[in-house]
Every structure is written in C-alpha cells, then in structure tokens.
Amino acid sequence: MFWFSNNHAYPIGVDMGDDSVRVVQLCSNGNGVSLIAGGSENRPAEVKPGSGEWQRWAIEAIRRLTSNGEFRGRAVVATIPASEVFIDHIKMPKIRDEKGTKPQDMLISRIKQKLPFEPDDAMIKYIPTEGDNALVIATEREKIDRHLAIYEKANLQIKTMAVWPAALANSYVRFFGRRKTDIEAIVMLICMEANCTNVVICRHKNPLFARSIPIRVTGLGSEQDDEVMGRLVLELNGCRRQFGSMYRNAQIERLIFLSGQRVDKDVCTAIAKQLEMPAQMGDSLAAVEILMGRDGPVVDRRGCQVNWATAFGLSLS
Asked: How would you classify the pairing of strands 133-140 and 157-161?
C-alpha cells in the first residue's frame, strides 16, 4: 500500500471491556485522521469477566483481531475496564516543611480508607487538574499484571497503559473540539457502554472529573426503559453537582454523546432534555476516513453498533 509511506501511523489502541474487546489503529493523513484497521469481538456469554477463561479468550481474541494484516507494527496503547478502576476527586494536600514527604504519600493516606482493595496492592496515579483539585486513579497491581500478560501472550508490545477518561478526552479534542472556542470550553462527555455509562467533564484535553456509572439505557418506549433513564439522569445531575462544588466558577457548556451509533439518537435527546443542557452527537467513526483493506473497508460504517470512542482515543495517545 503506497499511501502508507506518506502517512503517520499511531499505535494500536486496545479497549478491553468486561463484555468486549475493540482494537483499532489510526493514522494522520495530512488533512485529518484515517482508520487503518479495526475490529471487535464480544465476550462469550458463558465466560465470566476476570476469570482465567476470560483471560484466555482475551488473548485469542486480540490475536485474531490483529492478524488480518492491516495493522502496522505491534506497539499498543491499552486500558483496562472501567469496572476495575477506582476514581476519586480530592483537594491536593499542602506540603509544608516535612522532609521527604511526597504528594503521592499524602494522597494515599487520604484515599486509602475509600479504596475497595488493600492500598499496598494498588497502583495509584494522580492528575492535578485545576485550582488545588486532583483526579486520583487506582487499580490493583494484580489486575494490571493480568492485562500486561494478555498483551505479551498476544505478541503485542505495550507502549503505555492509559486511563479511560484521558482516552475519551482525546477523542473529543481530535474530532469534536477543534474550534478556537473549544479550547476553554468545559464539556460533559457521556459514553454509554454495554454495562455502564462513563462520564468525563473536561476542559479541552484536560479531564477535570470522571465517573463510571453502572447504568446503561437500552432504548425508549417501555416503563423499564423510562425508569432506567430516570436513574441515569439523577446520576448525571449528581456528577454535575459534585463538579460544581469542586470548581465553583466553572460552567459546563454542553453535553457530547460519544457512543456513536450504538445508542439511539432519541435516547440522547431525551437525556439532554431532562438535564436541560445543549448537546451534540459525537460519532468518532463518522469523523475519520476509512481505508480499504484486502476485502473492502477495514470497518463497515453502515449500521455499525460498536462504540469506538475509547479505542480511538487510545490510538491517538
């Protein structure tokens, strides 16, 4: 493929969820972004997430998805399921004259009682945001090691293990936040997955707030759907209130739904109406040029029900 010599290929982005794995690779074509290769596979219903059988399925699924010859290189930027990540928001500790005291140590002392696992078993990262606020992200070392083993056995080379809030912010900035007015705008990104709704409030590429809500709306029309949507709206309002208490002079300008064609537009419209906020749809797949593979387009855009937002953001890292 002679086009490839004039294009810059990004790493392979691997979005490993509880229920599926999505693998993509993007490239910069000088005028925008193209999709080199991509694929997804759903977890078999009989395979329990996080089990040894799940790990073996993940290895084989990634091997299958990356063996079609369209992918370039073996470098990977990956993330782990939102359900395996603990996120908290705290005020940055003020360190005075204590010799040898590190911000990381102070943060751990503040959040260790909140962690759903032993602090000694955790990998903890903090991201200073604005003012004296910080986003704290923690995961069990054992789970990170398990994911690293998956990629090693799938014959891929981990460039970095990223976090899903940053990946969603990457997708927003690259595809939907390119105007000058977007640089200072604060937006709420809403990404509905198979078993959860991931929320990021960011100022351009900088996440300020993140939360994974274990709710997903499937549609409209039934009492059950309306009840689930009502619960989700309450949770989203809770995110907005918590954000407002942390950043008192900041205002969220609009909602951006990043689930692509996976979620019906009417669902997003109904949520935005209940939240009484302006909103826009953000379909990452529609924002890129899809290249032709040996057997046609590397991903078929028509009726695609796969949510690519996180995987695209990982490849762009």
From this structure: unpaired
CATH number at residue 227: 3.30.420.40
Can you give the residue range of the structural domain that contains 232?
A: 180-282
Domains held by the chain: number: 3
Q: How far is the C-alpha of 241 from the C-alpha of 235, rounded, in Å?
A: 10
Rg of the chain over all Cα atoms, to the nearest angstrom: 20
Q: Are residues 132 and 243 in the same domain?
A: no
Amino acid at the residue 100: G
* Predicted TM-score of the model (pTM): 0.92
For 158-207, write each residue's pLDDT tens digit: 999 999 999 999 999 999 998 999 999 999 999 999 889 999 999 999 99
Torsion, Cα 141 146 150 153, to 10 degrees, reads 100
- Pair 175, 188: CB distance under 8 Å: no
**Is there a contact between 193 and 307 (Cβ–Cβ < 8 Å)?**
yes
SS3 224: helix
Buried b (16+ CB within 10 A) or exposed e, 120-155: eebebebbebeeebbbbbbbbeebeebbeebbeebe
At 55-106, the pLDDT tens digits run 999 999 999 999 977 899 999 999 999 999 999 998 877 655 556 666 667 7
DSSP strand pairing (254-257 vs 279-281): parallel
Q: Residue 15: what are its φ and ψ, rounded to 5°? A: -100, 100
Q: How far apart are CA 146 and CA 142, in angstroms?
A: 6
Q: Is 131 left (phi over 0), alpha (psi -120 to 50) or beta?
A: left
